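User: Okay, second chain of the day. Same drill as before: sequence in, structure tokens out.
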Amino acid sequence: MTELSRLIEHCKLMDVSQLEQELACKDDHTSHHRELLGVIRGSSIKATDKLRLALLYALRYEDVANLIALKRELVDGGVKQEKAELVDLLLRAAGKARRTPGLYGDGSLISRMAKNLQTGLTGVENVFTQHVPRLISTLDAALKGKLKEAHFPCTGNIPNASPRQVIVFVIGGVTYEEATKVAEINGPGLRVILGGTTIHNSNTFLSELRSMP
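Assistant: Same drill. Structure tokens below.
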């Protein structure tokens, strides 16, 4: 435990994790850009952590970010040039032009008010557990019988009652976070079975990204 605590402190893993959550859940380009540069230029942060944060930043702010400058900062911060180029590769594979809407929510005033109200009622949210996978909202719609048939076509008759067992299989892989959230959903009278072609962490995902044609 002492060694784990030392590594967490030495590599600034709590700071990295908090910025990771903020990039995934909040829209504040000025603040996020400033914090990201501080991390990239930090001597204690691992190169893999710098790259992962830069990729999250690029996904959220691809329309306004200076990606050429970002890649230059990564290289100056100790990230290899070929890995810095993953910024472009990721956007070609999963940028706004390639993915369906909704990854970061709609950002509407009503949705922000609802989130603020929920936070006010339940207390201050844990900054390290802000992110909820989009899979969970899809499962919630499925369990309520509200999936859009245009996006999730059915074979045979569509049942009127909400399902009590759902099987999800993701081609391309699932994440440990998704598996954890699904386990939290499961309980008496409800069973969600989650499968995929693999279980990804950031390293395996980037390795697969590099192998894409």
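The chain has eleven helices and four strands.

User: Thanks, on to the next one.
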